[in-house]
Write a structure and sequence with these properties.
The protein has about 120 residues and is mostly beta strands. The chain is about 5% helix and about 40% strand. About 30% of the residues are buried. Keywords: Metal-binding, Zinc.
């Protein structure tokens, strides 16, 4: 396990096989409001360590990303969906990562607001 993350209350936790080196800062309506900093990984590199029953799901726009959030505290540690290449992906909110220095990640701006 290269890194671990969770929601604020701990009811939702995940681990990644690799530590991300870059992330996007999207300006779409949900990412901007929630201040997400997202790293994308393939589903085989992501492990949900807690039951899916602790999650609620929200989709909007083109409905290609399922934003997962804790049903208890409302924190959104990850999302699942399909990337532009048509492959399954997991978008991990690095602001929910534990013991992870965000200054080690190259942050790329992404204009998601114009993509909806």
């Amino acid at each position: 396990m290269a890194m671990r993350g969770s929601c604020q209350c701990g009811a939702v936790a995940y681990s990644l096989d690799d530590r991300p080196t870059q992330a996007i800062e999207c300006n779409c309506s949900i990412c901007r409001r929630k201040a997400h900093l997202l790293a994308f990984v393939s589903p085989d590199k992501f492990t949900l360590e807690t039951p899916r029953s602790a999650l609620s799901v929200y989709t909007f726009g083109r409905h290609v990303i399922r934003h997962q959030f804790c049903s208890t505290c409302g924190c959104a540690p990850f999302a699942e969906g399909v990337g532009p290449d048509g492959k399954a992906m997991v978008a991990v909110n690095l602001r929910c990562a534990e013991d992870f220095d965000l200054s080690t990640v190259k942050v790329l701006p992404y204009d998601g607001a114009s993509k909806l």
